[in-house]
Each structure stands twice: as C-alpha cells, then as structure tokens.
Write a structure and sequence with these properties.
Order of helices and strands of chain A: HHHHHHHHHHHHHH
CATH architecture of chain A: Orthogonal Bundle
Largest interface: A-B, 43 and 38 residues
Distance between the termini of chain A: 35 Å
Structural class of chain B: alpha/beta
Number of helices of chain A: 14
Strand order of the largest sheet of chain B: 6-7-8-3-9-10
Helix content of chain B: 25-40%
Radius of gyration of chain B: 25 Å
CATH architecture of the largest domain in chain B: 3-Layer(aba) Sandwich
Distance between the termini of chain B: 31 Å
Oligomer: heterodimer
Shape of chain A: globular
CATH class of chain A: Mainly Alpha
Number of domains of chain A: 1
Strand content of chain A: under 5%
CATH class of the largest domain in chain B: Alpha Beta
Structural class of chain A: mainly alpha
Number of strands of chain A: 0
Chain lengths: 348, 503
C-alpha cells in the first residue's frame, strides 16, 4: 500500500483520489447487490428492479438540482416542500382540466418550481441569508402554502387521467417511463455541468468564493441560477411524484429533502462545495434505493433502515475527510522533499 | 531595460483612503508605465496593500482619481479591474483547489466552441502553451490541490498572461519560494516586461527590488515619499526613505525587573514553515518578535500554544519539559496566546464587563454548579483596577466601552486564567493611535507584575518601543537578536529583509 503511494507523483495521487469516490460507490453497490441477491430470492426479479428504478427516479431528478446548489457551497432544504407543492398543483390541474396535455402540465410544474427556487436564490445571493436558514424558512413557507391550498383535502388516483398515470405504469424497453425521464435529466445535468461555462462557475464558486469574485465570475447570478435549477427540477420531481403516488395530500413528499441530500452526499458531492459529479449522485441514489429495497425484502425493521441511512452518510463523509487529509499530508511531505532537493541542487 | 518615455498605463492622482479617521493612504500620486517593473516598498502599514486593493477594485478611494491610458476610470469592483487589464497575484494565491490547472487559468472566462459550450481542447492547449512559455513543470490537467506554492504562483501568472493583463500586481511573490524558484520567477517577470506588461512588484526583500525593479516607489505612513529609477536608489537610501522618522515616544515603557528563564525553546521545527528556532524568555521580560508577514512569527506562536504540531524541537516552562499538545495543555501550564483577531472578536458585546472577564474561569466561580455573581463582580473589579479599565461599573455592557477599554477587557479575560507567559499577536493591529498608547501602557505594566510577554508585531516602532529584547525572523528562521540598546529600525529591517551581512 505504502509502496504504491510512494511511486505515484502528487498529481497522480490527487487525480486518483478524486476518482476513488465513484469507484467506491460502484463497489458498495456491487457488494450490496450481491448480498441481497443471495439473501433475498426476489431481489433479482425484473419487477423488483423496476420498483427500485421508480424509487430512484424522482430522488435522482431532484438530486441533480440539489447537486448544483451544493457545488456552490450552499444547500437547498426546501426541495421536499417544492416537490409536495408541485405534486399537488400538478394533480389539481389534471382534476380541473382532465384533458390537459401532460407535457404542458409538466412545464407548469417546472415553472412553479423555478419560481420558488428563484426566491431561494434571491434570499441567499441578494439578501445574504445563509442558505441553510433561508431554505429552512422556505421549507416551512412552501409547505404552509401547500397546506393552505389543499385545505386538508386530498386527490386520489381515480381523479387523474390515465395519460398522466401511465408515466409510472408504462415501461418502455423494460424500464419505467419515470426512470427514462430521470436518465434524461441526469444526462442533461451531466452534460451541463461538464460543458456549460456558467455551470463550471458553480465549481469555482464552491471551491473558493473569494477567488471566484476576483476572477470576475458573476457569483450572485450563478448562485441564483443554481437555486432556480434546483427548484425547477424539484418542480419536475413533484410532477413525477404525483404520477407515482397519485394520492396527493398536504404531507406528500415530506422529508423528501433528506433522501435527496443523502443521495448527493453519498454520491460524493462535497458539502463544502466545489466537488461532485452527476454520475456519482446517480450512483448514490441507486445505492440508497437498492439498500432500502433489500432491507424491505429481508423484512428488516424501520429502525435499522433509518439507522443504516444515517450510518452510510457518516461513513461516506468520514472517508472523504480522511482521504482528503491523508492526501494533503502526503502532498505536503512530498513538496517539502522536492523543495529540499531543489535547494541542494541550486547550492551545488 | 525600459525606456523612461514609456507612456503611463495607470496614473494615480491624489488618491486617499481612510478607515475610521485613520489615513491608510493619503494624497498619493505616481504613474506606472508599461514594460516596467515598478517596485512598491514601505513598512507594514505604509499603505501598499491599500493601494493594491484600490487598483484591483476591492475598495474605492475616498478622494483622488485613477487614470488608465490618460482616461479617468472608476474601478468599482474586481470585474472592472479585470476588464481594464489590471490583475493581482496575492500573497496567498487565490486558486481553486478542486479544479484542474487549465480551468484555474480560465476560470470565469472559459473559451467556447460554436455551441457555446466549454471548449476543453482549446482550453487545454492554450493553457499548455502559456505553461510552457513560463517553464512550468506541470500540465493543464493537473489538479491544483497537488501543487506547491511556487507552482501555484506560476499558475497565477499563467492566469494573468492568458487574460492579456497589462498591469500585473505581485504582492510578496517570493515569500514562500526557494532561491531556485525565485530565480525562475525573476526570469518570468523579465519575460512579462518584454511583452509590455507593467509589473507592480511588492516585496520586503530589498535585494530583490535591486535585482529586478526598474522604478521604485517608497511609501511611508500612507504617504508617497519618492518615485525614482531603481538605479538611483541604493538599498541604504531606500531604508532611510522607508523609515524616515525617529522613534517617537509613543511607547511608555516601564522598567520591569527581569528574572529567571521562564520559557526555553530549543530547535523548534515545523516542516516547510520554520526551523531551528531556539530562544529563551525571562520573567518580567517583553520580547519582541519582528519579521515581515509570512516570516513564520505567528506560526511559531501557534505551534508553541499547541494549535499546530511541531515536527522537532523541545520546550520547557519553568525548567520542566512542556509538550504543546493542545491549547488547553498550554493554558494549564500558564501559557496564553492572543491571536490577532481575538482582540476584536473575543468579546460578547451585549454582556457586561464582569460576564466577559469571567468567561474563561467560570468553573472556579461556580462552586456546586451555581454561579456566584458577587465573586464574578469581584474578579472583574480586580482586573478593572489592575488594567485601569474605565467603566462605570462591572455591570456595564462591553458595547458601550471605548475601543481601548474593550481591548483591555479581552486582556483581562485571558489574564483571569492567570497565565505567566503571554503571547500577543499584533495586539494593536487596526487600532487608532490613542488606543494604541493605552494598550502599550497596559502591556508594559503587566511585565512589571512579573508576566513574561512575547510580542509579535508588524509595526517596528511598537516592537522597538516595547521590547527588552528583539528577535528577528526571516523565511522561517531566527536571523537576528538585538538587546534593547542595539535595536534600531535600520538594523531590524536589514535583518528581516536579508540585506547585506546583517544576518
């Protein structure tokens, strides 16, 4: 182990550590699939995987937006409330306009989320409220609005048109339509984070906010954009949520933000910003959903399910911190050696 | 070499900036020309950083104007400075640790392809071209986390080059470089000059200024003293212009009785930060630790106090060995350290003097877990008397006190733990003149009571006025020790800047 480390240059070492995360999640995923496949006979059935895919889909969609926010060294706690509000409004739209075209309603849901996310962004970037407080406040406010609109009533599946419910029930090419949408969102998200100049700014801002300002990056505008995207994807998530769980009431998607943030953190998004990929987050979401599903199949109690969720976060973050510290120490030592060598060289 | 007839790129005209009535820069005018290395020298607090901040749009001047190419410009924020071609390299390079070298070079202005997407391949090749030109030993795909200080500085220069900067400000670029790396940097600066860039070079090392500058501007106490061709300014003359004044007697030093050795440090070393540090502190003694920012003064204090680990060396307090494992352990052995910002932030403004003073010793005032307000007030009154804190009563809120008295409350808070050795880091940084004298008086008085004080300060007059003995640091080493009678501004600066044979 030590020998391997020594042969690596600092650069390679750092590069390897960055990739370590996705490999780690993939390995954890492989191990848990293997474990559940042996212990729970139904685990490998097609219908079980379709179930997992449906569960992952909504989390993944919302987590892509959350990732953008976390990359800028902020956090969006209000996504659960946005999903809930958007789910109810989407369903209510179909109740009142049975023939409404599905894509149009989806766009309405996205627009609502976009607006709510924009408010978050303005609070954080312009009013300078720390993101954790601003979005904690809007988590409450948006849920309150949801509560007021529903007025204690709920919408049930038979009030909704089939064209909408098909999103969850149809399985083109063996995968639920929801999952296809999620894959699409992840692809667009990954491409954006890689190729869009303004999205690269997210990484710079989260990595060093002051330096970002000095480099002439429009920090405020970018932060608002990240929150708006997070809101928009939560809006889309709410729309999908209503299709998947068609009995929608005021507590729909309560605590959903926890699943989303868990997926992001386990997927290697650094809560201090600057680090994270959509691939990692998607893998994180799949890993969490797989373990949850396996636990249910094995009839393991809710306590252990929740315990494991928390435990996984602790493990992921601890490994991150340890790896970073080890890496920094190794690099520091290495630098000192190189410097000493150069010094000798210069004196000789 | 530059010709004196180069047109000015930037011209400062009567620029002033003050903070709370204290002038940081006052009425400064001079011109910076292209294809010129323009050194900016002066003591700490002379106004160099303030000028840099004004030029880079971080702060606005209160008065005066800045001409760029003979046109008055308002540099309202860093973006505008960027657009005008003014780029600064800071002492601590402002890099993005999590991104690759190429992305650092192009942060905020990625090259784009026809689809308006980031053009990674041209970004890499452009970055590679600039890096090659600079002779960097790393490529565009290297993660910045793996780069050392020298490489990070090269990266900053690469940034400036690729954004076609016209004015590049280098603030203490050599502070953390080895001689070999400094040579490389100078070669780079030479190339920048050939390209027509105006380089503003800030350094405390006068031999560097002599080696590289075409023009030197000397600042003192926020005022412009001289701008002359470097060839006409030998080192001695620069120092004379920098210091310029005799030591004023703002520093009422009381004679304290100096006793036995209280703290002894031998061969302290922290890899890459400082090495071979040995000194002794005696009872009742005030020892000044001088040296420029980044010379390792604060780092030594942090290591002695147990904040950062030591890699080698030994310490003893009052003859018994002391291992600085944690600040708590240090406090238990009677060693207290007041970091620079602690003096400003170590108070709860809305609480009373008594509540603030007692904060660090609450367990002793709360027998049986119940706070005895009377004891708390008694403690506070003791310190109010000892430090001459001017308040109406111990119950007065800290917020209503003057700055100097607030500083004293912070001191009282630490003194309540009854330390025998006190390390003060920049105790009067950012404090107005009147308050300063007040704080100095208090420090001096504490020494007469038998406290040992290690005074870290960037202000030479403060060090010279207060200290019984002065230790001077440069680049992580102790390079000079002067008794009070031998310590002069010239000698200390020479040692700190590494001029001549003073080291």
């Amino acid at each position: 182990m030590n020998g391997v480390v020594r042969r690596l240059t600092p650069q390679k070492l750092a590069a390897a550590a960055f990739r370590l995360r996705e490999i780690g999640i993939a390995a954890a995923l492989g191990i848990s699939v293997l474990f559940f496949a042996i212990r729970a006979p139904d685990f490998l059935s097609v219908s079980n995987w379709q179930g997992i895919a449906q569960n992952v889909a909504i989390v993944a969609v919302v987590a892509v937006g959350e990732t953008m926010v976390i990359l800028t060294r902020n956090i969006d706690l209000s996504v659960g409330s946005i999903v809930g509000l958007s789910a109810y409004l989407s369903a209510a739209t179909f109740v009142h306009h049975h023939a409404a075209p599905v894509p149009v309603v989806a766009l309405i849901a996205i627009a609502i989320g976009l607006g709510l996310g924009f408010v978050n962004g303005v609070l954080v970037a312009v009013a300078r409220v720390p993101a954790i407080i601003a979005t904690l406040a809007t988590l409450g406010i948006y849920r309150g609005i949801d509560d007021e609109i529903t007025g204690g009533k709920n919408i049930t599946a038979y009030q909704l048109p089939d064209s909408f419910l098909k999103l969850a029930s149809e399985k083109p090419a063996g995968l639920p339509a929801l999952a296809w949408i999620a894959i699409g969102v992840c692809l667009v998200g990954a491409v954006t984070l890689r190729w869009a100049p303004w999205a690269r700014d997210f990484y710079a801002i989260g990595s060093n906010p002051d330096a970002a300002r000095f480099a002439g990056i429009l920090v405020r505008r970018r932060v608002i954009t990240a929150f708006a995207i997070s809101g928009a994807l939560a809006g889309l998530g709410g729309f999908l949520f209503a299709a998947r769980f068609p009995t929608v009431d005021a507590v729909a998607a309560k605590n959903f933000e926890l699943d989303v943030i868990t997926a992001a953190v386990i997927g290697g998004v650094n809560v201090f910003g600057g680090v994270g990929t959509v691939l990692g987050v998607a893998l994180g979401a799949v890993l969490v959903a797989t373990i949850q599903d396996g636990f249910i199949l094995l009839r393991i109690s809710e306590f252990w399910r929740l315990f494991f969720n928390g435990f996984a976060i602790v493990v992921a973050v601890t490994i991150d911190a340890l790896v970073t510290r080890r890496l920094q120490d190794a690099l520091r030592r290495r630098r000192a050696e190189v410097r000493a060598a150069r010094h000798r060289e210069a004196q000789a | 070499m530059s010709e004196p007839l180069q047109p000015p790129v930037v011209e400062l005209q009567r620029v002033s900036k003050s903070y709370g009535g204290v002038h940081a820069v006052a009425d400064v005018s001079f011109a910076i020309r292209s294809s010129t290395v323009h050194a900016l020298v002066g003591e700490n607090g002379a106004g160099k950083s303030t000028l840099v901040k004004i030029l880079t749009g971080v702060i606005q001047p209160d008065d005066g104007q800045i001409l760029i190419d003979d046109t008055p410009q308002r540099i309202g924020d860093p973006q505008i400075a960027h657009r005008l071609g003014i780029v600064a390299m800071y002492q601590e390079p402002t890099v993005f640790q999590d991104l690759s070298v190429a992305e650092n070079v192009f942060a905020g202005r990625h090259p784009r392809n026809d689809l308006h997407a980031v053009d990674w391949s041209s970004m890499r090749s452009e970055a590679r071209r600039v890096l090659l030109e600079l002779g960097a030993e790393f490529g565009p795909d290297t993660p910045v986390r793996g780069l050392g200080v020298a490489d990070r500085q090269l990266l900053e220069i690469a940034k400036a080059l690729s954004s076609s900067a016209r004015v590049l400000i280098m603030d203490e670029p050599t502070a953390a470089l080895s001689p070999h790396e400094v040579e490389n940097l100078f070669a780079t600066v030479g190339r920048l000059r050939e390209r027509g860039v105006a380089v503003i070079y800030i350094s405390h090392r006068l031999e560097e200024v002599g080696a590289i500058a075409d023009v030197v501007t000397v600042l003192r106490d926020g005022r412009h003293i001289a701008t002359r061709p470097a060839a006409e300014l030998p080192d001695g003359e620069i120092i004379r212009l920098m210091v310029g004044r005799s030591l004023d007697d703002l520093f009422p030093k009381e004679e304290a009785e100096i006793g036995d050795v209280v703290l002894k440090a031998e061969g302290l070393m922290r890899r890459g930060v400082f090495s071979n540090i040995s000194f002794e502190l005696r009872r009742g003694e005030i020892v000044g630790l001088a040296g420029f920012v980044g010379s390792g003064r604060t780092e030594i204090a942090r290591s002695i106090f147990g904040i950062d680990p030591l890699d080698a060396g030994s310490l003893s307090i009052e003859g018994r060995p002391f291992k600085p494992r944690s600040p708590r352990a240090a406090l238990a052995r009677g060693l207290a350290y007041l970091p620079e910002d602690r003096l400003h932030q170590g108070l709860v403004q809305l609480m009373s003097v008594a509540q603030n003073v007692s904060m660090a010793v609450l367990p002793e005032l709360t027998p049986g877990a119940i706070l005895r307000p009377r004891r708390e007030r008694a403690l506070a009154r003791r310190f109010m008397e000892r430090l001459r804190i001017k308040t109406t009563s111990a119950a007065q809120t800290v917020r209503s006190l003057s700055g100097g008295n607030q500083q004293k409350v912070v001191l009282a808070k630490w003194l309540a733990a009854e330390p025998r050795i006190l390390i003060l880091d920049e105790p009067t940084h950012g404090v107005d003149v009147g308050t300063k004298a007040d704080v100095h008086q208090t420090i001096s008085h504490l020494a007469t009571e038998g406290l040992t004080i290690l005074l870290i300060s960037s202000e030479l007059p403060e060090i010279l006025g207060m200290s019984d003995r002065v230790l001077v640091m440069r680049e992580g080493r102790l390079v000079g020790e002067f008794a009070r009678s031998e310590a002069t501004q010239e000698r200390v600066i020479e040692a700190a800047a590494g001029v001549g044979a003073a080291a």
